[in-house]
Specification:
heterodimer, A: alpha+beta, 4 domains, six-stranded antiparallel β-sheet, B: 2 domains, three-stranded antiparallel β-sheet, about 5% strand, disordered C terminus
Amino acid sequence: MIQNTKCECGHQNPVNTVLCESCGKPLIEDQSMEPLEMRYDGVVRRSQRGTKSVIDVVWSFFSSVKVAIYLIFLTLCGASLGTIYPQENTFINIDPATYYPETYGTMGEIYYTLGLSHTYDSWWFKLLLIMIGTSLVICSLDRVLPLYKALSKQKIRKHERFISRQKIVYTGEIKGIQDEKEAEKWVEEFSAILKKKFYRVTTDGSALLAEKNRFSRWGPYINHIGLIIFLLAVLLRIIVPGWYMEQYMDVLDGDTVQVPGTNYYVENEGFTVEYYSEDELAEETIEKGKVIPELFETKAVLYECVENCNDPFMEPILEEVTRHPIQVNKPLKYNGLLIYQMGYEETPLLRSVNATLKGRESGEEYGQFVLEMDNPKSNYEVGEYQLELVSYYPDFKFENGVAGTKSSDPNTPAFIFSITGPGLPDEGEINMYFPIPQHKVIYQEDQVNEAAGSTLVIDVGSMQDVDFSIYTSFLSARKDTILPMIWVGAAISMIGLIMGFYWNHRRIWIRMDGKQLLLGAHSNKNWFGLRKEVALALEKQGIKVEPKSLENEVKKS
Amino acid sequence: MSLEQVSNTALIVAFLLYIISAFLFVIAITGKKWSDRDPKEHTLRWSKLAFSVTIVGFVSQIIYFITRWIYSGHIPNANMFEFMTLLSMMIIVGFIIIYLIYRSAGIGVFALPVAFIVQAYAMVFPWEAEPLIPALQDNWLKIHVTTAALGEAFFAVGFATGLMYLIRTVNFTGTSKKDRRATRGIEFTIFAILVVVGFIGSVFLFNALDYQAEFSKEVIVPAEESELEIEQVNTEEVKYTLPPIVKPYKSEITSMDSYFGIQKPLMEAPFWMKGVNAGRKLNTVVWALLTGTLLYCLLRLILRKPIGAKIQPILSDLDPEDLDEISYRSIAIGFPIFTLGALIFAMIWAHIAWERFWGWDPKEVWALIVWLFYSVYLHLRLSRGWQGSKSSWLSVIGFLIVMFTLVGVNLVIAGLHSYAGV
């Protein structure tokens, strides 16, 4: 069927236009009097064009608000599934294949098998987000350009049927108007009233168009642009290597640890934790025996490696770049690298002792040496004596008559020295040494040494000679290069929302045909406010109407 | 009187004033049919009175807020009691703003009850102020929580007016399928509200009676999870403040006061509810449902018709289209605030405190779900046929999701936000 698309006002409209682009006359003849569909002022959008290529089909799929709503709804449902059980990434060291069935039974197994234990990393969730992104781009483009065109070339004198089918309508005879001149004068007066209400008014003889806050129409599109930037940033963050880094470090009090994958080293110069005192806590908390930390802090020093980096045989040479006490809400920042305080753990680990070599019988002291639990030296010189480290078991165990170590952590450190010096045999005297007193008792240090004929004792004098590390500080290092783009996207989106929701685009059309006044008004939101405004303006011209009565009475059939 | 007492008293005063002003708003509407008065003037006068009482209540609530801030040393929005109270306060802010725009007494009839029910719910939780854990010691606590609560409060006002629209327009005597479904929907919504009221009521009742019961349960800690690397048996204890209808799975009674002559728990929690607290939570749900059902049946018996049908005449003078627009307006005002507070500020703070701006923590996900749901709502409003009753239903469902995010997530799912005290 060939459609005649030329309006009676002489304007040639594209196929499928709903309201004439020029005079606003409804082009689809339905004879009904119900309020017009005013979206995008009735212009035709790309997605509504007659002919359809493949691109057009894809375009019209994504340009549909209905499709967008379905996509959002599916995302919403999908996201909720991921909160039923904790996601895999909330655990540091588990095997999900066994964890979920063991912890949550059959439901857990189903949950894991369906891949819901990593919902937000799943292909379908990402696909949904990408589709929402596409829909955002296409929906916006499909609508914003035609809308811009329609709003920038509005005709002032609109067709009667366009005005009379607005949602807010007033029609009546103005007494005392004789000719066109007086009609124009009336319109002039009315225009002055509207101008006081911050309308931009244009007149064409006895016709009038008043408009305000048109910018609010761009709000949704600006919001969408912000969201697109946000989603792009999230995408880039995943795709571009090196833009996002996430590393975890457990740093013992006094230790220095490399930030994995970087040239940075972080030293924990001292970790402190303070707890709230009982009189600061609620009674119930005290009853439960809970303690609440008030503050925990890692005195951190950040070093950059300048030489011998990544050389397994050489000690790296470090240069201090910055220092900062890291607290939960106060990360260390350096050159895009952020180091956060995640948590802490009490780990009473021995770091080193300042040991004394003594005579077993005489108790005479021959000298002191610093013995480190982490990488002890192979030789120590103490006074006139030479101590050669024969074996070191950081986590000593004695099984089936064989000594060994359970791990490399100094939980039960044990040393075996061969000591040479004055009055000792040339092949050396064997001495076994446990730095921690209770281990001396458990493993019978004295008895073993005496049985071996040892004449010397290694011992620590006081607690001051013991260096304990009490806390392990859990730190996390992050680099998030794209972050500024995320914030820019969020800010733009927010500006768009404010523009779109806290202002509304209002338009008022008037045409006088002889004495007959025909007024129509349209707003994209807040009809209540517009009705009040129109009623107030009419009242100033001596026409008293209830705001509510301005509503177009013809309801949907 | 200590500052703490001043603060608590001010809160109770505010709570009572909100109940009074809700009644005054009802009189403002229903009383205009009384004889010897001009209906218009009556509504105007009584609405003014009701609104002033609301304002006085609000001032009292602000006194609570400020005094509590002073004596506890931090902004009172850190545990469940404080947050829910803040939400109720924000619902009043939302109500005041919307009322000043539309000047309709009807809004008060529904928005105030939402506010005082939320306030009563807050009062169920421990009142005592707790010092802040390090993660919360930041200015963002003030900004993020407050803005998010304000956004949610506007959704609450949208819910109240949406429900009003529905009660106003549904044909309760209609026999068509559509009418019957709508009637059932409204009755169910009212039932759900009564369940909350029933829960609050039973907690207050048994607290006043100082009811207590204790259970212990043996929990086997497998060898690989215990420190000594041998299988261990731990005894976990749980204290009930509501009489135990349901006891924790495989638990022993340590002590139990009898109630209504009942000496023993009637049932045991199912086996898949492992922890002792799961049993306690189930018992609470059972109590809420029981008292809610009881309240509902009682009201039906007294009123002898659907509760919605009884409320309808109060609303008969209100224009449904205005209600629909007010509901939409509140949500439209709330949406940007919610976006800013619950998502953008949340992301900024998460970036500072938790080393990532987004981590799919259950609370974050549910805030996103709320946001997505209201975006669906706003987009659907653009389509023909989605104004009026359909969008009112969405505003009701939306607020349900909001409440799940605020309360349900903490009760059922927990996660990083679990410090909230539940």
